[in-house]
Amino acid sequence: MGDPQPPLSRLDELRARWGLALGEPYPPGAAGYAVRAKLPDGSPAVLKLIDLHRESEHEADALARWDGAGAVRLLDRTDDGSAVLIERCEPGTPLSAAGPENALAVLTGLLPRLWVSAGPPFHSLADEAGWWVSYLPDEWEAAGRPFERRLVDAAVEALTALGATQREQVLLHQDLHGDNVLAAEREPWLAIDPKPLVGEREFAVAPIVRSHELGHSRAAVVGRLDRLTSELGLDRDRARGWTIGQTVAWAVDGGMPEHVEAARWLLDS
Question: So what's the pLDDT on residue 31?
Fold first, then answer.
């Protein structure tokens, strides 16, 4: 997790605000800049600077809502949520390293703990689905038609139908996969880096079903869908539709070939 280092003035400001001693940053990634820190009493923490955008702007709110139950604990935040102080996961090994079967068992147990009631300020899944539908065909064209049109059409059809017919609304971590769950001391495994939405439970399996680090084959993808929906009592058809819809929306620029392949397998299953 982490983008290139932010301005030193910003780090100095946050160091002074929370009385931190900063250590080594985490490897660069797409979730923001994160650096090891120690609190004034010497206990470990992580300072994370979040690149606020549509998907990440309410990360701090989600962590606060979960209050450490199945997710990393929020210790403090800036008013705008652009910087958070969170507990440090040690040893911090990603769940994907535990092997596909173990990882899927952990994720199956973790999901219901994250499904808490929530409302504003989170974006709704219905609005997000409408946003994906609004750009999918044009972005697919602009990207040079990176995959067959039938995937776009299937995604648009699923997102349009499912968005308007949802059931009970809960808080969702729309990027929950094996690399966004870390080994910790307070609990064996804790979720990090939420991209929160409020919507129905069936949507929540999408990032797990397509997770290539848990096994990338038609059998593995369909098998995860079957196991998750069966064990969690979810509607398989709705979960399959949400997975196709979000996966194609996130992969429409052609930069995620494994995701496209997973969507294709699900469409043909």
Answer: 65
- Please give the helix or strand (H or E) that residue 170 lies within, else none: strand 170-173
- pLDDT per 10-residue tile (average), the chain, 269 residues: 70 97 85 92 96 93 98 97 97 96 97 96 97 97 96 98 97 96 98 97 98 96 98 98 98 92 96
Burial of 36 (0-12, 13-18, 19+ CB in 10 A): middle
Please say whether the beta carbons of 168 and 118 come within 8 A: no
Q: Which of 41, 175, 226, 235 is catalytic?
A: 175
Q: Tokens 């996961």 sit at which residue?
A: 89
Classify residue 138 by burial, with Cβ atoms within 10 Å: 0-12, 13-18, 19+.
exposed
Active site residue 79: no
Give which of 114, 90, 63 is closest to 186, Cα–Cα.
90
Residue linked to tokens 């040079």: 144
* Separation of alpha carbons 225 and 266, rounded Å: 9
Q: Is the pTM of this model over 0.90?
A: yes
Whole-number CA gyration radius for the chain: 19
